[in-house]
Structure to design on (634 residues):
């Protein structure tokens, strides 16, 4: 577990590793080069957009759907809804990517549907058009990732004392007020926990991005993980790949430490 | 200030009928206590008054207003929950101020009300704390404070003391009583504890199986129970009940218990049943005393019994005995010299005896 990580860190200080046998120690040269690489900065920017967008989307959709399932409806439709809504989580990334590619194809069902409803004038290449690719990718990522948060929020909602809601109702709070003054504060520890966890996962997410857009078109959806992969297995620049990987690792490590400290703090209360 | 009227109030969950038509009038300023065994529908009734449960049929009036379809917040009520239902993420102050802020009350007025309530409830030093940093008794006070600040027409309490230990419960009971005497607001209070009911109530409403069994002053339900259920629910220990047969030899009329002991009835509590009728004879433990402690000289009311068991309660001693298969409990002074196994002569004060129909279980007038 530790050895490959150390190996990658070592590679990031060498030149032309793996491909040539006489690679030389270059110090921070790889890092310097990367600092002046505009694509690196694009991928950092994209990673942040993708991660923050996905996590916020997961939170909002997750809470909304959890509230919906938690509302007092008949237990049978409730169970059916819950099962259906968890489904996106169960498919592998390949299946998800292929499905969405079919649906979003310029001649796919989504384009026809949107055109029929008059929302778009002409067919859009959702994954192939630079101006919409990131937004489309976010939709797919949100669709794929909300169930975990929804399930977490649902169990959180179910553990809130019902009489607290009743007390608030008598105190004169409407649903909006109850949501922001009771529900959200009650869910706060769960929100922090899963948001941070989700941040860690999404930050280094690779398969979904690679399989849907491959980082493109152009560099429109290039994120750190796809950039690493491209360096390594497309350009065979393993030193550069290691360097990006180390940077990715550093960010992830910081988030993980935050998450673990948060968890520790909670158990101390 | 307003009273409450319930008229043929019914509640069903799906096909299950929970309340079978409640008719009740609670006067303005009255302290009404719903008491009854667990599951009899007390909380449901209270929650319908609060507007937390829908009305299946019937009417609820608070003051002159029909409130069936009125939002809880507009009913002029405040409720104290069994679990207290405090907002854990808010300070004690914010817990109490929440409803006032929602009503857009000026901040100065909010502060004044919260401070004054905290003062009465001795919570002033805790205003900045979170509920989790309070003891059970203090949480209970916060729950009451939250109700008091709103200055409601009607207070609703659902078993507010059942999570407290015995000492604290007695103390809070007195405080709630005091609160009522000071505020003079209408209170509806639910409990399964008949002692709580007796001590607090202006009016006790005894419920059983989704119906009102009897409603009246504590004295009334205690001394004149409408049914065997009320007789055996109120009082600790409850009224002694024994199957018996009425006899009437022309000169005297009385009951014969188990074919062994005959006791002649009193003019003050006339026995209306005919000779040969089976009745359930009821008498409170405090109306059975050892002959040597009694100032009653009526030998027609005595029986010779063997003591099975003694329970010392401090100022009184309960003695258990039986007549045939019927168990009885009597009350003697705390210093009485009675031993288990001893045969003593007891006096039953037949002026306070009650008779019930064994079929309907209702009192025979
Ligand atoms: N939401 C509900 N759904 C179905 N049955 C209920 C519900 N709430 C209460 N009941 C039933 O109604 C009856 C009365 O309950 P409740 O009023 O809470 O009794 P109490 O407060 O006197 O103990 C109980 O038998 C209980 O099981
Ligand atoms: Mg109850």
């Amino acid at each position: 577990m530790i050895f490959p990580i150390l190996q990658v860190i070592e590679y990031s200080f060498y030149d032309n590793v793996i491909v040539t046998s006489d690679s030389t120690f270059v110090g921070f040269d790889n890092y310097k080069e990367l600092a002046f690489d505009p694509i690196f900065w694009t991928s950092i920017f994209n990673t942040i957009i993708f991660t923050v967008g996905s996590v916020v989307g997961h939170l909002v959709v997750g809470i909304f759907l959890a509230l919906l399932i938690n509302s007092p409806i008949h237990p049978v439709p409730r169970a059916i809804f819950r099962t259906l809504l968890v489904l996106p989580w169960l498919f592998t990334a390949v299946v998800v990517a292929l499905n969405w590619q079919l649906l979003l194809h310029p001649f796919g069902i989504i384009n026809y549907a949107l055109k029929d409803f008059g929302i778009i004038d002409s067919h859009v290449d959702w994954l192939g058009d630079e101006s919409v690719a990131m937004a489309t990718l976010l939709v797919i990522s949100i669709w794929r990732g909300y169930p975990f948060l929804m399930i977490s929020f649902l169990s959180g909602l179910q553990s809130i004392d019902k009489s607290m809601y009743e007390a608030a109702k008598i105190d004169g709070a409407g649903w909006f007020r109850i949501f922001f003054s009771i529900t959200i504060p009650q869910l706060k520890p769960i929100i922090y926990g899963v948001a941070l966890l989700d941040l860690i996962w999404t930050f280094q997410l690779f398969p979904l991005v690679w399989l849907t857009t491959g980082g493109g078109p152009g560099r429109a959806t290039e994120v750190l993980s796809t950039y690493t992969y491209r360096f390594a297995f497309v350009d065979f620049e393993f030193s550069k790949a290691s360097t990006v990987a180390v940077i990715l690792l550093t960010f992830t490590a910081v988030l993980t430490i935050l998450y673990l400290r948060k968890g520790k703090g909670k158990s101390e209360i | 200030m307003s009273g409450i009227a319930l008229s043929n109030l019914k509640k069903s969950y799906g096909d299950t009928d929970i309340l079978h038509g409640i008719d009740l009038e609670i006067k303005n300023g009255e302290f009404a206590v719903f008491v009854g065994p667990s599951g009899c529908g007390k909380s449901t009734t209270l929650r319908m008054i609060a507007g937390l449960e829908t009305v299946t049929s019937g009417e609820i009036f608070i003051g002159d207003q029909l409130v069936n379809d009125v939002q809880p917040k507009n009913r002029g009520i405040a409720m104290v929950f069994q679990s207290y239902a405090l907002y854990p993420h808010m300070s004690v102050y914010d817990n109490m101020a929440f409803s006032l802020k929602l009503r857009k009350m000026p901040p100065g007025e909010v502060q004044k009300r919260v401070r004054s309530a905290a003062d009465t409830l001795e919570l002033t030093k805790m205003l900045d704390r979170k509920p989790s940093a309070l003891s059970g008794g203090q949480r209970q006070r916060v729950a009451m404070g939250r109700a008091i600040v709103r200055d409601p027409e009607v207070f609703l309490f659902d078993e507010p003391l059942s999570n407290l230990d015995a000492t604290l419960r007695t103390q809070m009971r007195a405080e709630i009583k005091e609160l009522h005497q000071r505020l003079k607001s209408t209170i509806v209070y639910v409990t399964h504890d008949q002692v709580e009911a007796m001590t607090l109530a202006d009016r006790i409403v005894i419920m059983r199986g989704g119906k009102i069994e009897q409603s009246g002053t504590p004295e009334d339900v205690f001394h004149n129970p409408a049914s065997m259920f009320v007789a055996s629910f109120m009082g600790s220990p409850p009224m002694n009940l024994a199957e018996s047969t009425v006899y009437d030899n022309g000169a005297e009329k009385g009951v014969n218990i188990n074919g062994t002991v005959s006791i002649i009835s009193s003019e003050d509590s006339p026995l209306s049943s005919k000779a040969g009728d089976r009745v359930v004879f009821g008498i409170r433990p405090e109306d059975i005393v050892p002959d040597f402690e009694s100032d009653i000289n009526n030998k027609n009311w005595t029986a010779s019994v063997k003591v099975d068991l003694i329970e010392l309660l401090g100022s009184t001693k309960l003695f258990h005995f039986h007549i045939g298969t019927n168990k009885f409990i009597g009350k003697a002074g705390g210093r009485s010299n009675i031993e288990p196994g001893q045969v003593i002569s007891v006096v039953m004060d037949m002026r306070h005896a009650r008779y019930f129909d064994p079929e309907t279980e209702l009192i025979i007038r």
Notes: Chain A has a mean pLDDT of 83. Chain A touches chain B through 17 residues (CB under 8 Å). Residues B 13, 18, 36, 38-44 surround adenosine-5'-diphosphate (ligand 1) (CB under 6 Å). Chain A has one domain: 16-264.
